[in-house]
């Protein structure tokens, strides 16, 4: 079978571009096409529960609305997030922002109260507001409950957020549970620890596993959207181990497999651990999530609209 040369035309739809990618072989464009087609299949299958993992600075990188809209539209059923993405989602809900085109030496940025995430910037003033607002929320929740799981805590926080674009708020209102096994490793976690110094309030991380395992066992099929690597990727994979693994999954990562790290491991490797089923449909794309995921999601939705 010959490789088709990609043709670009004026005013072409995203799905048409993906179709051009489809016949271009197994380099990057071909992988993008495969991931797009698999994502469309995942979203369209009513028997598949879609688990999404959020690793890396996806909210600072501009994907907050993308993720929130997928929750609103019923395209994702469960989220595993880093503590950082939760923190940055709340930062914006409390009136803060993420900034660009600031530049400057990092030591000078430090003196100005500016934190840098590659070429995205945050303000210490916004984090000061975050600290005050999240403490108020902790106080309200702790006045009603003394022991909660991480997922329950994030659900309760989401119910108290008045922001139609918030990931946490939309997840709570649409019954999409958010798990965050590394929550303590974030500004959210730091404030939670400080709050616990003088409050009788316990967060039980193990309690999450009861609820999560019930979701897995009650799912006819599970599909994974793995954005970035690390703990969130592994928690999503490992949560399905007791049922033989994911039925289908896509991952987008900048990491490579040669070091043996999980972040760069091809999804096929998960089959050896029963974290992805033998015969499962898998697609890995090496690249920047903030570029590739909006592209394949737009293509998948375009494809579904035309079917």
TrEMBL record:
Q: Name one GO molecular function term.
A: deoxyhypusine synthase activity
User: What residues form the catalytic site here?
Assistant: 275
Keyword ATP-binding found: no
Q: What is the E.C. number?
A: 2.5.1.46
UniProt keywords, alphabetically: Hypusine biosynthesis, NAD, Transferase
Pfam families tied to this protein: DS
Q: Does the keyword Transferase apply?
A: yes
The family annotation for this protein states:
Belongs to the deoxyhypusine synthase family.
Recorded protein name is Probable deoxyhypusine synthase
Q: Which organism is it from?
A: Methanobrevibacter woesei
């Amino acid at each position: 079978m010959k490789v088709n040369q990609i043709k670009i035309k004026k005013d072409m739809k995203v799905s048409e571009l993906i179709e051009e990618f489809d016949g271009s072989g197994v380099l990057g464009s071909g992988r993008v096409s495969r991931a797009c087609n698999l994502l469309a299949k995942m979203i369209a299958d009513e028997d598949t529960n879609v688990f999404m993992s959020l690793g890396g600075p996806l909210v600072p990188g501009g994907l907050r609305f993308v993720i929130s809209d997928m929750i609103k539209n019923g395209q994702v059923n469960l989220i595993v997030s880093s503590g950082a993405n939760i923190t940055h989602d709340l930062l914006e809900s409390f009136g803060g922002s993420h900034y660009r085109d600031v530049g400057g030496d990092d030591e000078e940025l430090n003196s100005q109260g500016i934190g840098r995430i590659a070429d995205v910037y945050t303000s210490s003033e916004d984090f000061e507001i975050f600290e005050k607002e999240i403490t108020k929320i902790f106080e309200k929740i702790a006045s009603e409950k003394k022991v909660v799981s991480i997922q329950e805590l994030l659900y309760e926080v989401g119910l108290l957020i008045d922001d139609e674009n918030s990931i946490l708020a939309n997840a709570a209102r649409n019954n999409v549970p958010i798990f965050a096994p590394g929550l303590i490793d974030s500004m959210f976690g730091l404030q939670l620890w400080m709050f616990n110094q003088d409050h009788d309030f316990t967060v039980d991380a193990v309690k999450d596993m009861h609820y999560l395992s019930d979701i897995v066992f009650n799912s006819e099929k599970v599909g994974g959207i793995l954005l970035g690597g690390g703990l969130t990727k592994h928690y999503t994979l490992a949560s399905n181990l007791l049922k033989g693994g994911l039925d289908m999954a896509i991952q987008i990562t900048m990491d490579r497999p040669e070091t043996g790290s999980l972040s760069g491991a091809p999804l096929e490797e998960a089959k050896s651990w029963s974290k992805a089923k033998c015969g499962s449909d898998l697609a890995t794309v090496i690249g920047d999530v903030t570029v590739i995921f909006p592209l394949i999601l737009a293509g998948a939705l375009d494809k579904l609209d035309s079917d």
